[in-house]
Amino acid sequence: MIISSLKNDNISKKVSDKNYNNYFTAFTGNNDNTFQAFSTIYSKGIKNYAVQQIIKTPTLTGNTLNDAMNELEKIHFSQNDIKYMQSLGVDVKFNNGKEIADFIKKNKIKVEFDKMGSKAAHAQWVKANNKITINHKYKNTTNPLLIVAISEAICHEGGHAKDGDDISSIKEEFDCLALNTLANRYHQRAYPNLFKENSEADILKNGVNLYTELFFAPDQNKERLVNRIINKYGDLPLTSPNHDQITDSAVLYRLIRKKRSN
Ligand SMILES: [Zn+2]
Protein backbone atom coordinates (compact mmCIF):
# COMPACT_ATOMS: atom_id res chain seq x y z
CA MET A 1 0.00 0.00 0.00
CA ILE A 2 2.95 2.33 0.42
CA ILE A 3 3.68 3.59 -3.02
CA SER A 4 6.46 6.00 -2.37
CA SER A 5 8.61 7.34 0.39
CA LEU A 6 9.78 10.92 0.17
CA LYS A 7 12.13 13.06 2.17
CA ASN A 8 10.17 15.80 3.91
CA ASP A 9 12.02 18.55 2.05
CA ASN A 10 10.41 17.35 -1.18
CA ILE A 11 6.97 16.59 0.08
CA SER A 12 5.28 19.96 -0.18
CA LYS A 13 6.37 20.23 -3.82
CA LYS A 14 5.11 16.73 -4.53
CA VAL A 15 1.70 17.15 -2.94
CA SER A 16 1.09 20.51 -4.53
CA ASP A 17 1.90 19.09 -7.95
CA LYS A 18 -1.34 18.48 -9.87
CA ASN A 19 -0.11 15.05 -10.99
CA TYR A 20 -0.21 14.02 -7.37
CA ASN A 21 -3.77 15.13 -6.68
CA ASN A 22 -4.76 11.55 -6.03
CA TYR A 23 -2.27 11.20 -3.27
CA PHE A 24 -2.27 12.38 0.24
CA THR A 25 0.46 12.12 2.77
CA ALA A 26 0.97 10.86 6.25
CA PHE A 27 3.72 11.56 8.70
CA THR A 28 4.86 8.15 9.76
CA GLY A 29 7.11 9.14 12.62
CA ASN A 30 10.18 7.38 11.26
CA ASN A 31 13.39 8.39 12.97
CA ASP A 32 14.67 9.89 9.75
CA ASN A 33 11.48 11.90 9.47
CA THR A 34 10.40 10.61 6.09
CA PHE A 35 6.89 10.97 4.82
CA GLN A 36 5.07 8.24 2.99
CA ALA A 37 2.48 8.81 0.31
CA PHE A 38 -0.61 6.64 0.05
CA SER A 39 -2.97 6.41 -2.89
CA THR A 40 -6.66 7.17 -2.45
CA ILE A 41 -7.51 4.27 -4.76
CA TYR A 42 -6.92 2.00 -1.78
CA SER A 43 -9.64 1.27 0.73
CA LYS A 44 -11.24 3.80 3.03
CA GLY A 45 -9.71 1.91 5.94
CA ILE A 46 -6.22 2.73 4.74
CA LYS A 47 -7.24 6.32 4.15
CA ASN A 48 -8.49 6.64 7.72
CA TYR A 49 -5.31 5.06 8.97
CA ALA A 50 -3.27 7.67 7.12
CA VAL A 51 -5.40 10.54 8.42
CA GLN A 52 -4.89 9.30 11.96
CA GLN A 53 -1.16 9.39 11.35
CA ILE A 54 -1.29 13.11 10.53
CA ILE A 55 -2.85 13.91 13.92
CA LYS A 56 0.16 12.50 15.66
CA THR A 57 0.97 12.55 19.33
CA PRO A 58 3.93 11.03 21.15
CA THR A 59 3.79 7.30 21.84
CA LEU A 60 3.74 7.04 25.62
CA THR A 61 4.22 4.03 27.87
CA GLY A 62 3.67 5.70 31.26
CA ASN A 63 7.38 5.72 32.14
CA THR A 64 8.12 9.45 31.99
CA LEU A 65 11.87 9.25 31.56
CA ASN A 66 11.83 6.42 29.01
CA ASP A 67 9.17 8.26 27.07
CA ALA A 68 11.22 11.47 27.07
CA MET A 69 14.32 9.55 25.92
CA ASN A 70 12.28 7.93 23.12
CA GLU A 71 11.08 11.36 22.02
CA LEU A 72 14.68 12.62 22.16
CA GLU A 73 15.76 9.94 19.65
CA LYS A 74 13.11 11.09 17.16
CA ILE A 75 14.06 14.78 17.13
CA HIS A 76 15.10 15.99 13.70
CA PHE A 77 16.53 19.50 13.38
CA SER A 78 15.51 21.28 10.21
CA GLN A 79 18.47 22.26 8.01
CA ASN A 80 17.00 25.75 7.61
CA ASP A 81 16.73 26.12 11.39
CA ILE A 82 20.36 25.00 11.79
CA LYS A 83 21.50 27.57 9.20
CA TYR A 84 19.42 30.25 10.91
CA MET A 85 21.03 29.47 14.29
CA GLN A 86 24.50 29.58 12.71
CA SER A 87 23.68 33.00 11.25
CA LEU A 88 23.05 34.22 14.82
CA GLY A 89 26.50 32.95 15.84
CA VAL A 90 25.41 29.65 17.41
CA ASP A 91 27.78 26.70 17.33
CA VAL A 92 25.25 23.88 16.73
CA LYS A 93 26.78 21.08 18.80
CA PHE A 94 24.60 18.18 17.60
CA ASN A 95 22.74 17.53 14.35
CA ASN A 96 19.70 15.73 15.79
CA GLY A 97 18.22 14.13 18.90
CA LYS A 98 19.62 10.69 18.14
CA GLU A 99 23.18 12.07 18.25
CA ILE A 100 22.41 13.47 21.71
CA ALA A 101 20.84 10.20 22.90
CA ASP A 102 23.84 8.24 21.56
CA PHE A 103 26.25 10.64 23.26
CA ILE A 104 24.40 10.15 26.57
CA LYS A 105 24.48 6.35 26.21
CA LYS A 106 28.11 6.20 25.06
CA ASN A 107 29.29 8.30 28.00
CA LYS A 108 27.00 6.48 30.44
CA ILE A 109 25.46 9.78 31.53
CA LYS A 110 22.65 9.24 34.03
CA VAL A 111 19.37 11.10 33.41
CA GLU A 112 17.23 11.32 36.55
CA PHE A 113 14.58 13.38 38.28
CA ASP A 114 15.78 15.09 41.44
CA LYS A 115 15.59 18.30 43.45
CA MET A 116 17.44 21.16 41.79
CA GLY A 117 20.14 23.40 43.27
CA SER A 118 18.02 26.32 42.12
CA LYS A 119 14.24 25.90 42.31
CA ALA A 120 13.80 27.81 39.06
CA ALA A 121 16.06 25.43 37.11
CA HIS A 122 14.30 22.99 34.79
CA ALA A 123 17.32 20.73 34.31
CA GLN A 124 21.03 20.65 35.08
CA TRP A 125 24.24 18.87 34.06
CA VAL A 126 26.78 18.07 36.78
CA LYS A 127 30.03 16.56 35.58
CA ALA A 128 31.12 15.24 38.99
CA ASN A 129 28.03 12.99 39.05
CA ASN A 130 28.05 12.42 35.27
CA LYS A 131 24.36 13.19 35.53
CA ILE A 132 21.63 15.24 33.90
CA THR A 133 19.02 16.09 36.51
CA ILE A 134 15.45 17.03 35.58
CA ASN A 135 13.41 19.01 38.11
CA HIS A 136 11.55 16.44 40.21
CA LYS A 137 8.28 18.39 39.94
CA TYR A 138 7.87 16.77 36.49
CA LYS A 139 8.46 13.24 37.79
CA ASN A 140 5.67 10.85 36.79
CA THR A 141 4.02 13.32 34.45
CA THR A 142 2.05 11.71 31.65
CA ASN A 143 1.30 15.00 29.91
CA PRO A 144 2.74 14.54 26.39
CA LEU A 145 3.55 18.26 26.10
CA LEU A 146 5.68 18.07 29.26
CA ILE A 147 7.33 14.86 28.08
CA VAL A 148 8.48 16.45 24.82
CA ALA A 149 9.59 19.52 26.83
CA ILE A 150 11.72 17.23 29.02
CA SER A 151 13.32 15.76 25.89
CA GLU A 152 14.09 19.33 24.73
CA ALA A 153 15.66 20.17 28.12
CA ILE A 154 17.82 17.03 27.75
CA CYS A 155 19.06 18.45 24.41
CA HIS A 156 20.17 21.59 26.25
CA GLU A 157 21.99 19.65 28.98
CA GLY A 158 23.54 17.32 26.39
CA GLY A 159 25.10 20.45 24.91
CA HIS A 160 26.65 21.31 28.29
CA ALA A 161 27.88 17.72 28.74
CA LYS A 162 29.54 17.62 25.31
CA ASP A 163 32.53 19.78 26.16
CA GLY A 164 33.39 17.54 29.10
CA ASP A 165 33.59 20.28 31.71
CA ASP A 166 31.41 21.92 34.33
CA ILE A 167 32.34 25.46 33.35
CA SER A 168 29.56 27.24 31.57
CA SER A 169 29.62 30.64 29.89
CA ILE A 170 27.27 33.03 28.17
CA LYS A 171 28.35 31.64 24.80
CA GLU A 172 27.84 28.05 26.00
CA GLU A 173 24.33 28.87 27.29
CA PHE A 174 23.56 30.59 23.97
CA ASP A 175 24.60 27.40 22.10
CA CYS A 176 22.68 25.10 24.49
CA LEU A 177 19.53 27.25 24.40
CA ALA A 178 19.67 26.93 20.63
CA LEU A 179 19.59 23.13 20.97
CA ASN A 180 16.37 23.12 23.05
CA THR A 181 14.94 25.61 20.55
CA LEU A 182 15.80 23.45 17.52
CA ALA A 183 14.15 20.52 19.31
CA ASN A 184 11.09 22.58 20.25
CA ARG A 185 10.72 23.72 16.62
CA TYR A 186 10.79 20.05 15.55
CA HIS A 187 8.09 19.15 18.07
CA GLN A 188 5.89 22.07 17.02
CA ARG A 189 6.06 20.74 13.46
CA ALA A 190 5.66 17.07 14.39
CA TYR A 191 2.85 17.54 16.92
CA PRO A 192 0.96 20.70 15.89
CA ASN A 193 -2.18 19.72 17.78
CA LEU A 194 -0.27 19.23 20.99
CA PHE A 195 1.03 22.78 20.81
CA LYS A 196 -2.47 24.23 20.44
CA GLU A 197 -2.84 23.49 24.15
CA ASN A 198 -1.82 26.33 26.41
CA SER A 199 0.41 25.14 29.17
CA GLU A 200 1.23 27.17 32.23
CA ALA A 201 4.03 24.77 33.21
CA ASP A 202 7.24 26.61 33.99
CA ILE A 203 9.41 24.39 31.79
CA LEU A 204 7.28 25.52 28.81
CA LYS A 205 6.25 29.07 29.63
CA ASN A 206 9.64 30.19 30.99
CA GLY A 207 11.66 27.54 29.24
CA VAL A 208 11.53 25.75 25.93
CA ASN A 209 8.50 27.49 24.36
CA LEU A 210 9.76 30.92 25.42
CA TYR A 211 13.18 30.42 23.79
CA THR A 212 11.62 29.45 20.47
CA GLU A 213 9.74 32.73 20.59
CA LEU A 214 12.90 34.69 21.50
CA PHE A 215 15.28 33.06 19.00
CA PHE A 216 12.73 33.42 16.20
CA ALA A 217 11.55 36.93 17.08
CA PRO A 218 11.17 39.10 13.97
CA ASP A 219 13.63 41.84 15.01
CA GLN A 220 17.16 41.43 13.66
CA ASN A 221 18.79 42.39 16.95
CA LYS A 222 16.94 39.71 18.97
CA GLU A 223 16.64 42.32 21.69
CA ARG A 224 14.54 40.18 24.07
CA LEU A 225 16.79 37.14 23.64
CA VAL A 226 19.95 39.15 24.35
CA ASN A 227 18.34 40.80 27.40
CA ARG A 228 17.05 37.51 28.73
CA ILE A 229 20.44 35.77 28.43
CA ILE A 230 22.21 38.67 30.16
CA ASN A 231 19.59 38.75 32.95
CA LYS A 232 19.76 35.04 33.50
CA TYR A 233 23.41 34.26 32.80
CA GLY A 234 25.09 37.67 33.13
CA ASP A 235 27.28 36.50 36.02
CA LEU A 236 28.93 33.84 33.85
CA PRO A 237 32.11 34.58 31.88
CA LEU A 238 31.61 35.43 28.23
CA THR A 239 33.34 32.27 27.04
CA SER A 240 34.52 29.01 28.60
CA PRO A 241 38.27 28.45 28.55
CA ASN A 242 39.62 26.70 25.45
CA HIS A 243 36.51 25.78 23.54
CA ASP A 244 33.89 28.49 22.89
CA GLN A 245 33.86 29.83 19.36
CA ILE A 246 32.92 33.45 18.83
CA THR A 247 31.88 33.71 15.22
CA ASP A 248 31.15 36.83 13.24
CA SER A 249 27.53 37.55 14.12
CA ALA A 250 25.67 40.74 14.96
CA VAL A 251 23.53 39.03 17.61
CA LEU A 252 26.56 37.55 19.32
CA TYR A 253 28.35 40.90 19.30
CA ARG A 254 25.30 42.50 20.89
CA LEU A 255 25.48 39.84 23.58
CA ILE A 256 29.18 40.58 24.12
CA ARG A 257 28.62 44.36 24.29
CA LYS A 258 25.74 43.92 26.72
CA LYS A 259 27.86 41.65 28.94
CA ARG A 260 30.74 44.14 28.95
CA SER A 261 28.46 47.04 29.89
CA ASN A 262 26.84 44.94 32.62
ZN1 LIG B 1 22.31 25.79 30.45
Straight-line distance between termini? 62 Å
Query: Looking across the biggest beta sheet, what order are the strands in?
Result: 1-3-2
User: How many domain regions?
Assistant: 2
The SS-based structural class is mainly alpha
User: What is the tally of helical segments?
Assistant: 10
Instruction: List cofactors, ions and other ligands.
Output: zinc ion
Profile the largest sheet. Answer: 3 strands, antiparallel
- In percent, how much strand structure appears in the residues? 5-15%
User: What is the subunit arrangement here?
Assistant: single chain
Residue-averaged pLDDT? 82
Order of helices and strands: EHEEHHHHEEEHHHHH
- Name the overall outline: globular
Low-confidence stretches: 1-47
Number of strands: 6
Measured as a percent range, the helix fraction is 40-55%
Rg from alpha-carbon coordinates: 20 Å
Could you walk me through the main structural features you see in this protein, from its secondary elements to its overall organization?
With 262 residues, this protein is mostly helical. It folds into 2 domains: 53 residues, no CATH class; 197 residues, no CATH class. It has 10 helices and 6 strands. The strands form 2 sheets. Strands 1-3-2 form a 3-stranded antiparallel β-sheet. A 3-stranded mixed β-sheet has the order 4-6-5, with helices on one face. Strand 2 and strand 3 form a beta hairpin. Helix 3 crosses helix 5, helix 6 runs antiparallel to helix 7 and helix 6 crosses helix 8. The longest helix is centred in the last third of the chain and has 21 residues. It is globular and about 50 Å long. The N terminus is likely disordered. The structure holds zinc ion.
